[in-house]
Amino acid sequence: METEVLRVLASDSENCAAVRRAGALIRAGRLVAFPTETVYGLGANGFDRVACARIYEAKGRPSDNPLILHVAGRAMVEEAAAGIPPMAEKLMAAFMPGPLTLILPRKPLVPDRITGGLDTVGIRAPEHPVARALIRAAGVPIAAPSANRSGRPSPTTASSVLRDMEGRIPLILDGGTCRVGIESTIVDCTGAVATILRPGAITREMLTEVLGGCNLDPALVGAKTVPRAPGMKYRHYAPKADMTLYCGAPAKMAAAFRREVRRLLKEGRKPGVLASHETCSGVAGLLPESRVRDYGAQGDLSAIASHIYEGLIAFDATDADVLLAEGVAEGGLGLAIMNRLRKASGGRVRELA
Ligand code: TXA
Ligand code: MG
To answer: How many angstroms separate the alpha carbon of residue 146 from the centre of ligand 2?
Structure first.
């Protein structure tokens, strides 16, 4: 199958022939990759079991891992959710549309293929104009995981989607680079207290301010329990070369990275570095530029979040055989950044003394 890539301007998305075509493909049971403000999604008609099965095939995704439904507004939430608890009402008022997925009780109409057999469903209203126009053009909720092959970093550009999905899907809508750069915050609204199952750009602090309180799935903070978002149990977001994540005071990073890079070079390795501007300056001259990825200034968490996946993906096109990444403090958006970097490192984390 040939994969077509069509550029869509955000300003033109409502009236655009490419979006109309994509909507028709979705209604016909086919797959379309599309931009959201978080990462690119791989979409299918959320009420079509057979179309959703195609998503699992194209991604190579384990079938017990449920999909989230992307909706254009409240009416579509009500089509899929059996009820909207008061905490979900508050979160919808504060953060929808936006980078937030709510876990709600599901209606029987939602196929088991989507929910992995759970009695809940994940629902998100993206704010990206192209995503919104596509959902409206399709006229149905769109089931969409991130548009990567299973286990690979989520794509934040159309060219990264193409690398993973070429020949597997008919169409990619290219809406440029995703603003947030990491997947939505997932909040389970089916219990007594809201619980974050996957941290994202809607932070724990923001949720607490609206709800008065908010738990974290214990599996996110090191407890040996099974994560309640099934997808969080897989090694994920991983580049091809093994990566070690360095944590500690920002002021110590540059010297520590210089030391580690020198040691690895002596062993004949080809290190790559994903780190702050400050730390990258510290290793400049030791490594070829292609193996040094500056993810933003220390403390600029939105810049860092938006650069980590493209950074990880870029190393796969180099000869790097070992990666070093710089961690951040875990407050605010830092929690989500560290969640993704920990997973990409497969648990290889070093605390700087
Ligand atoms: O930002 C995002 O959320 C992106 C864009 C495309 O919208 N989508 C995305 O989808 O990240 P995906 O499939 O890669 O991740 C969805 C996560 C998975 O970890 C899945 O296990 C979890 O949501 N999930 C889905 N339905 C669930 C449910 N009913 N209960 C608990 N977790 C659920
Ligand atoms: Mg994913």
So the answer is: 4
Q: Single out the residue of 102, 83, 106, 76 nearest to residue 91, CA to CA.
A: 102
Residue nearest to atom 22 of ligand 1 (CA): 229
Q: Residue 62 has what pLDDT?
A: 80
Ligand 1 close to Cβ of residue 36 (< 6 A): yes
Pick the CATH number of 4-221 from 3.40.50.720, 3.90.950.10, 3.40.1670.10, 3.90.870.10: 3.90.870.10
Write down the architecture of domain 242-351 according to CATH. 3-Layer(aba) Sandwich (3.40)
Atom 12 of ligand 1, nearest CA residue:
145
User: Is ligand 1 within 6 A of the CB of residue 146?
Assistant: yes
Of the candidates 291, 309, 310, 303, the one whose C-alpha atom is nearest the C-alpha of residue 328 is 303
Percent of the chain with pLDDT over 90: 85
Domains 4-221 and 242-351 share a fold: no
Atom of ligand 1 nearest to the CA of 42: 6
Q: Is 231 in the pocket of ligand 1 (CB under 6 A)?
A: yes
Are the beta carbons of 293 and 320 closer than 8 angstroms? no
Q: Which sign does the torsion angle of CA 215, 196, 180, 343 carry? A: positive
**Tens-digit pLDDT profile for residues 44-67:** 999 999 999 999 999 998 877 899
Query: For the chain, what are the domain ranges?
Result: 4-221, 242-351
Q: How far is the CA of 308 from the centre of ligand 2 (A)?
A: 14
Percentage, residues of the chain above pLDDT 70: 99
Question: Would you state the structure tokens that stand for residue 322, as one six-digit string?
Answer: 């070992």
Write the pLDDT tens digit of every residue in 327-343. Answer: 999 999 999 999 999 99
Task: Give the other-Cβ count within 10 Å of 231's Cβ.
Answer: 23
